[in-house]
Amino acid sequence: MNGQTPISIRNLSVFYGDLQVLKDVSLDIPANRITVIIGPSGCGKTTLLKSLNRLLDDTEGVRIRGQVVLDGEDIYAPRTEVTRIRKKMGLLSQRPQVLPMSIYENVAYGPRIHGLRARRDLDRRVEHYLQVAGLWDEVKDRLREPASVLSVGQQQRLCLARGLAVEPEIILGDEPTSALDPQSSQNVERRLAELKRDYTVVVVTHILRQARRVADYLAFLYLGELVEHGPAADVFAAPRDPRTRAYLTGEIS
Amino acid sequence: MNGPADLRLGRRKRADLFFRVLAAASAALVLLSLLLILGTILWKSIPALSFSMLTKTPQGGFYLGKEGGILNAIAGSLYLAVGATALAFLLSLPLALYLNLYKGKGSKTAAWTRFFLDVLWGVPSIVYGAFGFIIMLALGLRASLLAGILTVALLEFPILCRAIDEVMRLVPRELKEASDSLGATRFETAFKVFVRQTAPGILTGVLLAFGRGIGDAASVLFTAGFTDRVPTSLADPAATLPLAIFFQLGTPFPEVQQRAYASAAVLTLIILLISLAGRAMSRKATRHVVK
Amino acid sequence: MRLLKDALARRAMGLVAALPALLVLLIVAGLFLKSKAILAVEPLSKLLFSSAWHPLKGEFGLLPFITGTVWVTVTALVLAVPVSILAAIYLSEYAPRWVREGAKPVVDLLAGLPSVVYGVWGVILVVPFVGNVLAPLAGVHSSGYSILAGGIVLAIMTFPTIIHVTLEVFASVPQALRDASLSLGATRWETTRHVVLRKGAQGILAASVLGFSRAFGETMAVLMVVGNVPAVPRSLFDAGYPLPALIANNYGEMMSVPSYDAALMTAALVLTLIVLFFNVLARRILVRVERRVR
What we know:
The complex is a heterotrimer of chains A (253), B (291) and C (294).
Chain A: E1 7-16, E2 19-29, E3 34-38, H1 45-52, E4 62-70, E5 73-74, H2 82-87, E6 89-92, H3 103-113, H4 119-132, H5 136-139, H6 152-165, E7 170-174, H7 182-195, E8 200-204, H8 208-214, E9 217-222, E10 225-231, H9 232-237, H10 242-248
Parallel strand pairs in A: 3-8, 3-9, 6-7, 7-8
Antiparallel strand pairs in A: 1-2, 1-4, 4-5, 9-10
Chain B: H1 3-45, H2 51-55, H3 71-102, H4 108-122, H5 125-139, H6 145-169, H7 173-181, H8 186-215, H9 241-250, H10 254-288
Helix pairs in contact in B: 1-10, 3-6, 3-8, 3-9, 4-6, 5-6, 6-8, 7-8, 8-10, 9-10
Chain C: H1 2-17, H2 19-39, H3 44-49, E1 53-54, E2 59-60, H4 63-94, H5 97-112, H6 115-138, H7 147-171, H8 175-182, H9 188-199, H10 201-217, H11 220-225, H12 243-250, H13 260-293
Helix pairs in contact in C: 2-13, 4-7, 4-10, 5-7, 6-7, 7-10, 8-9, 10-13, 12-13
């Protein structure tokens, strides 16, 4: 580790009405690593991820206690500008969510909103991030076509390019390969592995093998509680908590 | 953060706020228009509202401002709406059952039937009035309670049928299959499972159709006739509240016009009651229905 | 026995299923048969595009009534569409849940109020408002019984139709798509404008067309406030005479004048065909939208 922690979660609790979904979670996320959050479905993984870029605020009946510190700034402080927080993070959702516009416009959407207007700058940025996402060669001749004509795997890489185009520091992935075929999944995983040189990556998954393949740092959530976390190799080799062990061996899922 | 970005962010946030306020104001306008309508009607009706208005039929010179009430119209409207709703129900229930039990999800027949129901739903009530009038002449009927009932039933049919259809579509497939696999014929499935399961929703639909029927004027204008007496048989002409309101408002006498306001208030209250009952029903519906 | 009952029920229900299509056919055919008497002697173009309405002389130009209907309906939509869509945006994108839930009965009730009640309200409030406030502001003289008064009343009557359908369209836009836009740092409004409205564009169009066909055939409320002068209107403050009002007002006397009956039926037929056309159009669009969402 290089000692930097771009995101630091401190005593975070999240309630949906009376139901406590996250229980006092504290976690430092290391820079330029892939942090994988594992755990059975319905244990709060997605909630934890969404709390990082404040997408939970919009959900009805959600209460949040605790802090998430991003670059030394508490994102839940009243004065924090939410659009600025979100711009620092790119989100990949479970199913690719392409915007109802052309391939080009999907990538240009974010930069344009944030004030990039000049045609040449936009063109350059779109091309660059489509290349980073490994999609450029497949779409360069049909940038004006609606994004919905792409295959699901291509759509997910388009979403990746779109997220990167606002030049975030962090990439959040919410089971980003769950809707994809094995080949597309592999493609996305490989992109993420390349991206960690420049970005901090946080990925939620319930696929253990995927976690083994990509994780540098591992966090195990169980029933809203952060049971164990540490360098992936250590946790996989020698889990300290019996529940982690049970999950890793497939006794609970 | 650097200056231009902050400036830009400020502008974007102001745009967001502007449209938020504009949208909220529009929603408030819609809400206010309802309050304004209810408020105006009730306020204006106060001077003419009285108990005898509800219990008396028009006496001599009623439309010149003399004694009497609108019992004829209240009774006429109730008879008419009850009859029409019953008739529409007899047509709607089997059709809705047919659409949901005998026809699968992808059925072409069902899709077309629903399409035509939607088309019927969009036919203006004045056209139903004209059509009812044609039918009436063809059958050799005079303007009467019966002719009115027939016309309003046609008007209510698509509304009621679509309402029942919507609730029945929400019944889970498994429930239907479970009943089928127990050896029940579809006919039994229909009545035992579907109707019981959707009863509160059906009732809400019935109330909705009833409200539509009792409030409609254009369809009964030529078909139900108008009279100062409470109808005693299906062949009698029948007065209706909407038409009573319309005719009273059309006179040049302020006293009579005030009665029109009062009559409108009575009709509005009936509609309010029906709609409240409907809401209570649908709340119950969501509580008892197996999801 | 049980099987027999089942077979019978199936047969009977099959018959009922044909009813909606049959009714549509019957209505159109019935009106057509009744209007044949005048269609046989007068060319259709003359009926539709002549503004000479002199029933006693046997002249039945429907143009004033068709233009009257179009004026009132368009006025209503110009007022109703923006307000309804913005209200739906507020309810769907901005409002807290209790406001959204609380607004539903209001919209339902607005849809359930009888048109004659709208008419009474229009006479009490809207007509004087147009005559005494808006007309002087515009520098014209008007009794208040006008296209504008009809348009205002009709606009409020079409709110529920448009809002209801638009809300359904917005609800069909997945939350994850909004999240995708928001997580790029877009504001609520940017997300609404670029994503929700764009995704729902066709549905909103259908909602407006449906509102149009609803407004086009509305009778009593408009009839009571629009003035009913059989001339082509020249301004919003002029009185108009829409098709439905023509039919409603003249039914009593039509038996005494020959071919008057047929002229009114032609009016009803024209009205029906126009409404059906727009209605079918809106339904087609909605079916397409629904299919695409699934």
